[in-house]
Amino acid sequence: xxxxxxxxxxxxxxxxxxxxxxxxxxxxxxxxxxxxxxxxxxxxxxxxxxxxxxxxxxxxxxxxxxxxxxxxxxxxxxxxxxxxxxxxxxxxxxxxxxxxxxxxxxxxxxxxxxxxxxxxxxxxxxxxxxxxxxxxxxxxxxxxxxxxxxxxxxxxxxxxxxxxxxxxxxxxxxxxxxxxxxxxxxxxxxxxxxxxxxxxxxxxxxxxxxxxxxxxxxxxxxxxxxxxxxxxxxxxxxxxxxxxxxxxxxxxxxxxxxxxxxxxxxxxxxxxxxxxxxxxxxxxxxxxxxxxxxxxxxxxxxxxxxxxxxxxxxxxxxxxxxxxxxxxxxxxxxxxxxxxxxxxxxxxxxxxxxxxxxxxxxxxxxxxxxxxxxxxxxxxx
Length: 381
Known about the structure:
Family: Belongs to the trans-sulfuration enzymes family.
Radius of gyration: 22 Å
Structural class: alpha/beta
InterPro entries: Cys/Met-Metab_PyrdxlP-dep_enz, Cys_met_metab_PP, PyrdxlP-dep_Trfase, PyrdxlP-dep_Trfase_major, PyrdxlP-dep_Trfase_small
GO cellular component, one term: cytoplasm
CATH class of the largest domain: Alpha Beta
Helix content: 25-40%
GO molecular function: carbon-sulfur lyase activity; pyridoxal phosphate binding
Distance between the termini: 54 Å
Cofactor: pyridoxal 5'-phosphate
């Protein structure tokens, strides 16, 4: 099988329409119909289930850059990819496609819970916890959804996907996995039984904090076709410029994600080894610190580049980002630059003393020295 670094550069070569080495930015919103009159079929005569992939008419439906991005993402993940204008749009599309009557969901991204609440409001979606469905799988029925985010946002806890796949499938339900915090090659939820996999491509696939995108992955080509057709009416196709930027980013994807993963693990190792030196740290949270037997199978090629720490107090956590030089205080994650966020600024459900780190590609020793100086001066106001 071709390696990720090769695939991410060459997977869409066959879709190139020009001689440019780099895919051009296609800004047109509309495309000429065929000059062959035999190709012109009235909308009323077309099968609504037929694929519109490759037939560019209007960019809300498809366009050259989005299809190139999907080709690359599909090749990287060994799946069929459908792109969206944001991660939350991808999540909404998965909910719409699955249309469950009962949703089993754990903690994680507050946007996902917001979508679930919208479905509860307009469709009376019943929400239960992951623990509920573990204790009593009969709460689920055919067509329902088990939604697992792993590693979970913000703290990075890893959940056993095979366990939840077995529960979901025993009841005819689907397992949908948000794997944004551990994209390939760090994890492949399909190997543990996922039916759909979601990524906020804004994060690690984008990697430069300059685009919004989401992707839903499936192993079933019919599901991809259905998702593409449904996306037409959700109005959530990824835009032209964002597609171009995503294609650009994917050319260096594997180099970035492996460096970010390695950097994060080294920083977590440093913090845990020196926790006695920095008593203001009350907790370090990262998947590499979990000892569950399933983790080596589920995360075989590295740890998430995201981790959290909790400090002794809310006051210290609020002040700490301002003491760092190389970690920008900002939300989001996955970019080449390291970020820190006093997480309560954007998430009303997390502890008030929680700091979330997204580790970039900088020299890891520089990042550790930066943390060391900040932790040494944490008592200063």
